[in-house]
Structure formats: structure tokens, C-alpha cells
């Protein structure tokens, strides 16, 4: 039973990275913008967060640096696709490639760097409970922040006026513009906020989850987070559940190896990506269901006055 409690704890930890990044991409897509640069933003943010903690010893400053790096790259992406009307898909891919190359170049001096001793977190009383204590109540605060973020987004998108405006921009930017809303500025704010969350996920990966810096350490999580938004049909609560599902698949490989299961390590390593492909293939069997939930202007440029 103890091994299952540890597996659950590891699942929550691994799923947090995906959840924060996917919720950021969800905000982008609710405004009608597709950002394929999540992988690159997370890599640059991971480096920024890790380097900041190495030099300052502060995890909080590391998270701020990661979020700022993600927001800055997202702002550049937003200016290109929203104001200069570049292709969203090509620009996102370029951002992803840039982030991978830049982080590899700038991070060479941090490969062997060590972070200060990590603090152990536990909720008083609850953390001492047998089985559920280690599984649920000894997590880093960012794990609980991801859950709160998902719940907060549910309220924001479906219960607040600002969320209604954001969704209207994603559904029909022409109508929102006709009503006097600054569509391009709203889209840019959504892109920057989404980039900051992707950056926060990258910083959490490098500072807490690993904690270390190596080239390409995001290892496809940005792409999985992007797939999660479709998997969850653009609903924050489903994004959270999907993130834990993929986090569980990721950690299952280590659990099986530790249990002595005779399976090739290469097969276990590819499990999260196989799961992503299978889930997307199953969802794609019903295109009408996707169209009902997908923001109507997703990926489409908007030209005021055209």
C-alpha cells in the first residue's frame, strides 16, 4: 500500500507541471490564439528559474523569473501574430525552436550547478496520517496552487464578466469589436498570461520537480500540455484531471521498473506519448463534438476594420 501512496504522490507532482502549462494554453485558446511555442517557453523559463535560484537561493524568485521569461516570450509571439498578423502555427513553431536552441546555448554553464537544500513540506496533522498523508498532504505548495488555479479559471471563465468577454473574443472577435471591446489588447493579455503560466510550469520543473538543469529537460511536456487542451475540450477542470492522468502514466514507468516488471525501458519511456496519441485519436472520431466545445475563432487572425 505504501508503494501506491508514493505513486499517487509522484503522479500529483508530475501532473502539476502539465496542469499549469495546459491551463496557460487554455487561456490563450479561449481568446482564439494557438501558441505552439509552449515547449520553447518552458525550456527558457526552466533555465531562468533554475539560474535565479542558483544565484539567489530563493525558490520564490525562481518562480517569478520563470513566469517573467515565459511572459516575455509570449509577448513577442503575441505582437507578431496579433499586430503583424504572422501565421500563428508557424510563429509558434519558430518560438519553440528558438527556445530549445537558446536555452541549450545559455544553459551550458548550469549543467553541473547545484541548488540549495530543498525544504520538505507537510500540512500539519494531515501530513502525518497513514498512507493518505504522504500521498496528498506532503506536496509542494505549487501542487495545491495548480488545483486552486483550475478552480479559479472555472469561476473566471464562466462566472465573471471579464471571463465572458474573453470567451466572446475567442468565439466572435468581430462581434466583440463591434461592441467596443479592444480585441487585440485582450488577446495580447491572454497570450501573456498564458505564457506566464507556461513559464511557471517550466520553473517548477527545473526548481522543484527535478531539481536540475539539462538541455531539453522539458522533454515534450509542452506538446503534451498543448494536446491536453483538446483532450479536455477546453474545460479547466478536465485539464486538471487530464494532467494527472498523463502524470500517472509518466510515473507508472518508474513504478513498474521498481517492481521488477520485465518490460523494455524504451517502451515504458514512450508510454506518455502513446497515451497522448491514443486519446487524441479517440477524441477525433467525433469532430462535431470537438467543434461544439472549441472556440470558433481559434487559430484565425483578426483584422480590425476589415
TrEMBL record:
Instruction: Tell me where on the tree of life, at the top rank, the source sits.
Output: Bacteria
Q: Provide the Gene Ontology terms for cellular component.
A: plasma membrane
Chief location of this protein within or outside the cell: membrane
Which regions span the lipid bilayer?
A: 6-26, 33-54, 60-84, 91-111, 141-158, 188-207, 213-232, 239-257, 263-283
> What kind of membrane protein is this, topologically?
Multi-pass membrane protein
Q: Which GO terms describe its molecular function?
A: transmembrane transporter activity
Q: Which UniProt keywords apply?
A: Cell membrane, Membrane, Transmembrane, Transmembrane helix
Q: Where in the cell is it found?
A: Cell membrane
The family database entries (InterPro entries) matched by this protein are listed as: ABC_transp_permease (IPR001851)
Q: What is this protein called?
A: Candidate Uncharacterized ABC type transport system, permease component
Amino acid at each position: 500500500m505504501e508503494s501506491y501512496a508514493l505513486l499517487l504522490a509522484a503522479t500529483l507532482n508530475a501532473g502539476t507541471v502539465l496542469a499549469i502549462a495546459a491551463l496557460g494554453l487554455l487561456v490563450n485558446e479561449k481568446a482564439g490564439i494557438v501558441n505552439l511555442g509552449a515547449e520553447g517557453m518552458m525550456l527558457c523559463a526552466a533555465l531562468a528559474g533554475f539560474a535565479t535560484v542558483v544565484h539567489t537561493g530563493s525558490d520564490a524568485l525562481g518562480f517569478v523569473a520563470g513566469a517573467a521569461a515565459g511572459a516575455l516570450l509570449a509577448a513577442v509571439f503575441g505582437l507578431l501574430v496579433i499586430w503583424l498578423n504572422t501565421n500563428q502555427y508557424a510563429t509558434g513553431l519558430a518560438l519553440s525552436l528558438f527556445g530549445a536552441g537558446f536555452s541549450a546555448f545559455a544553459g551550458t554553464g548550469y549543467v553541473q550547478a547545484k541548488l540549495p537544500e530543498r525544504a520538505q513540506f507537510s500540512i500539519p496533522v494531515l501530513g502525518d496520517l497513514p498512507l493518505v498523508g504522504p500521498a496528498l498532504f506532503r506536496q509542494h505548495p505549487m501542487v495545491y496552487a495548480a488545483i486552486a488555479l483550475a478552480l479559479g479559471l472555472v469561476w473566471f471563465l464562466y462566472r465573471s464578466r471579464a471571463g465572458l468577454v474573453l470567451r466572446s473574443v475567442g468565439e466572435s472577435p468581430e462581434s466583440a469589436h463591434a461592441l467596443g471591446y479592444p480585441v487585440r489588447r485582450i488577446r495580447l493579455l491572454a497570450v501573456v498570461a498564458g505564457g506566464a503560466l507556461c513559464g511557471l510550469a517550466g520553473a517548477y520543473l527545473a526548481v522543484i520537480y527535478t531539481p536540475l538543469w539539462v538541455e531539453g529537460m522539458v522533454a515534450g511536456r509542452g506538446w503534451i500540455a498543448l494536446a491536453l487542451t483538446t483532450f479536455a475540450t477546453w474545460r479547466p477542470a478536465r485539464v486538471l484531471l487530464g494532467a494527472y492522468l498523463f502524470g500517472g502514466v509518466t510515473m507508472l514507468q518508474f513504478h513498474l521498473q521498481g517492481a521488477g516488471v520485465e518490460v523494455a525501458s524504451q517502451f515504458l519511456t514512450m508510454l506518455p506519448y502513446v497515451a497522448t496519441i491514443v486519446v487524441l485519436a479517440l477524441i477525433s472520431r467525433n469532430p462535431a463534438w470537438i467543434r461544439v466545445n472549441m472556440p470558433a475563432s481559434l487559430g484565425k487572425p483578426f483584422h480590425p476594420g476589415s
